[in-house]
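INPUT
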Amino acid sequence: MKMKTHETLAVNNSPCGIGTSIDRVEDEALLRGIGRYADDVATLPGTLHAAVVRSPHAHAHIIGLYTDKAIMMPGVHGVLTGADVAHLAAPFPVGVRQPMEHWCVAVDKVRYVGEPVCVVIAENRYLAEDAAEIVKVDYKVLPIVVDAMTACGIAAPVLHDKVGSNVVNERTFRYGKPEAAFKKAAHHVSLAVAYPRSTCSPIECYVVLADYQRATGTYDVLSNFQGPYALHSVMARALKVPGNRLRLRTPPDSGGSFGIKQGVFPYIVMMGLASRKVGAPVKWVEDRLEHLQAASSATNRVTEIEAAVDETGRVTALKYDQVDDCGAYLRAPEPATFYRMHGNLTGAYAIQNLLVRNRVVLTNKTPTGLNRGFGGPQLYFALERLMHHIAVELKLDPLEVIRRNLIPAGAFPYEAAAGAILDSGDYPAAVEQAVREGGLADLLGRRDVARSEGRLYGVGFSAVVEPSISNMGYITVAMTPEERRKAGPKNGAVSTATINVGPLGDVNVHISSTPAGQGHQTVVAQIVTDVLGVSFESISVNVELDTQKDAWSIASGNYSSRFAGAVAGTVYHAAVAIRDRLAVIAAAQLRVEVGEILFADSKIYIEDGPSLSFHRVAGAAHWATNTLPAQESGALRETAFWTPPELMAPSDDDRINSSLCYGFIFDFCGIEIDQITGAIRLDRYVTLHDAGRLLNPALVAGQIRGAFAQGLGAALMEELAYGADGSFLSGTLADYLMPTAPEVIEPTILHMETPSPFTPLGAKGAGEGNNMSTPVCIANAVADALANSDIQLPLTPSRVRELIGIDEPEAPEGFSVDAESTALEGGSMLHASDSVEIPATPEQVFYSLLAPEMLEAIIPGCHKLELEGEHRYCADVTVGVGPIRARFQAKVQLSDLAPPSSLCLSGSGTSPMGSAEGRARIQLSSLENGGTRLDYQYDAAVGGKIAAVGGRMLQGASRVIIGQIFTRLSRQLSGETLQASLWQRIVAWFAALLGKGGRQ
Amino acid sequence: MKPASFDYACPTSKREVLATLSEHGQDARIIAGGQSLMAILNMRMTQPKLLIDINRIEELSYIKLKKSYLAVGACIRQTELLSWKGLGEAVPMLSLVMPWIGHVQTRNRGTVCGSLAHADPSSELPLCLITLGGKLVLESTKGRRVLTAEEFFQGVLTTACRADELVTEVRFPLGQANTSYRFNEIAMRHGDFAIISLAAVVGVNEVRLGVGGVADRPVVRNFTVDTELATTLNKMAWSLNAQDDTQASAAYRRQLVRELGLRLIIEGY
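OUTPUT
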């Protein structure tokens, strides 16, 4: 099909058409609460429900999995285990050549907290969760690594033995003459930054309904999967079926996605296998704890970035050393977080010399994946922090440094160093427009006033290129040119749209963009009303996707802001195809030239001449096919496919046009910091966007507001936190904080429109820009306010206050910091010490601790204690605080016995609530009154659900529980409660111990 | 995220509740507004065999102004107390504190006594009660006890309430003349669990300063306002055994006890 650009659009400029801010057609259902989400879809009779048993450990061998008791429970139909999966399926294909096995259920080893260990399938979710608690798993805990840089080291525990290293992919790139530029440069300015793990968590979590059809060997699955549909092939390969035996469908509505719903794909495979195992349809609805701990997230990155800068602040070369932490498995489409941004690594700047080292590392954390902004927040946090830092180092105005480096007007299309072909824009004019219309002078005045009053006020800037419409070949940049040659080229990005005009002249459109609330249906109807001249309200747009019946390709789906540029443009092509056929039919009926035919007001007509109703002409294609012109086949259905020729495979020198379109964003903001609390108040935020042609400005504003809120969250509060022991600490929305309406100010939104020459309608994507520009803009403002370059996200009040400085007075006598956990990141590692006085001699205390009867009596909630070996016991205990209780199968051990002065009491165990282990060092000293002072120091660690949801109370809770052991000991040994019989048994046991020479 | 199975009782009199509690003890759990319990129930972190719903006990739904205190029955929702007409005059501290409890939606369900009985170290009401020197009434089939807030709160989610007892009433001391009341809370978002919250009762010569969200329970100290105030506040800050967590460091919490504590006292003075 011949491409048409926006200038030659044959459209009517109807009141609801392209470019108008018409209300969304989706909202009637969504605002009334009658949307149809995956969980609302009717289930087949006999549908069973799944609950996933997950690992409480960050790294462990599975040495025993006992499901027999669970299977015997009423209502339970089966358990899908790693062994089943190994038998029925294959590991997921990986984007790089590594012998890394990732199965949908752990086969022999778990590598992150929350990793699925088995799936219980029962008649309802309650029974499934009951049975999941009964499943017993024995683990052999392994050393862990959570820090990306530590994981790169040779001393780090290796997650995948077959790979032999945690660095699963490393590539270096060189464009232009970076070494020469650095040699020549007046200044070298560098910065080390880290971007944390955050997630654009949707309101609706994952949902899968799977039905394995035995007769045909087909997995029929409905899920709120968002694409990219390249992953359909990944799923089919894992299920070991041809693509046509995995029928994947999506529901009409999806409750937010933001990239995260790409990560449901392992569960599609898992539930398909579960259905196959139990011979019935299986439904699984992910809960919030499962989602936060084990779904997906943005990739955390560590970057060292350096610029070669001349005297004027002009950057002549850039050097990146980037490490992406993809979690425990490299899950498709990773390591795409790097390569989505590869072509535009130099951002909005004219920098032709570039050196890059990219390392992809695995750690004991949840695997990462798509997350709104994908790769952009990480890239621009480094690049734009560096631009600010250059200004600081060279004592220049930060805005001036940006201005001096921008790609000049008139240079478009501009080929960036790493291969991006920046399609259109006028960056300098955009900056000046924002400065003028956004009131920068006024904002700088506010900063002057605030500073003169001694307040902490800062102004930050960011200039960002926002890529959209991903090149399906960019991920192959992770491979060497030689590997790529062997594998064959990958490129392009096919979009599809189908328009059907029914016998009554009714227009139905289908697209394969699987939206999650963005308003795709509205925009599609706007385009079709413009082209066909039928009323906006009459058009029906279906966004459900069925891989067995609908037009789709690997690039289908809801990601890389591809709707406006690619999908909407393809709809336009399909509409034009329909219009051209109708024009031929109408021309024959009216006996006029085809070129004279016009479409408007549901009529097909010629200027100042006869007119036919749209439905009559369209109806002829169905009801009177023999009256049609000879070339007409009858019926009216057109499917358009469109792929941009600009998206080529990577070149042999590793240049890649990683996206088709590149919008431009320029942001600035003013923030004030409370000097005591460290809280950041956003005073004003200005964001200018050039997203090409705006198809519906209201929807674009909605995208900007949403992305801005998420960018603000990433800047100020959001982090999926892990303890140093690999425990996950952000399991509820009271732990993982996202900004809500009161925390988000209204940004000033400005627009500039330089249409893209590469998309049918001139539109570019605008869905992710502020996820990329806002975190670093706020970070730069904080750096400006505090004159400090060490800015780490999220900028929590505590962290900001520590940047201001806490000049802490001395601890008064008797207080110290030794009871504190070691660091903010320390998370669930708990330590404390305390003492009790016991009215018995040290000898009595010591030997009574060695008696099982005493241990049973003093361990709180001990139901049963069985001797397993010398000073080793197996205990069944219920512990907790207040209403919160967990029943543990625990191992208890006494060691380092040095009678009568010291010993160690340690215990470890697991429960459905998670794992716990602790070790208390006990010192006994005699008191003048004949009693004993018992000092104890303990270290404890908890994992699994307890750590994920109880973080802020763990220290207090452990203190209560461990304290109880020793107060109970004291009570047992004080005369009043010590029963003679117990004491006699202790003495007898002690005698027996001595008798067999067991005294140590 | 579905609870384990449990039995459900919905008695209509206090007597019935106490009898049921007496029979089931540890295995039973009271539910009122459910704003804390439902979450931990659904996460299976608590698995009572019996849930006793007290929402229909009319005799526990009262707010009574007594001579020296305001009595609030176990079924009073936080919204009801906050919108009770004479609140600002009777207990000025409550008017200051209650808008900080969660959100309108959670206050519409959550009860005053329920929040106290749950004893979350970051909750506003326990801090308010302990700072004012209030009391709680605990009843069982064996009789009733009146405990001070300091006796009642024993640690994280841990109180002196026995398994067969019901918190039937809370008593907030009435506001005093020549005394000012101050409250401040730091959280990432309004309505979140406090990183730290402070309540101060500032009299002519004496100050009661309560701190929540730092120790394993709300803690209150009395001191005189003198030149040693900074030293006193530093001592209090260290005595709370502040901890690092994912939201804030221990040093930050200590610093806010010192600085916000001082600010609150000066404002109240």
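end of record. Residues 563-590 of chain A form the longest helix (28 residues).
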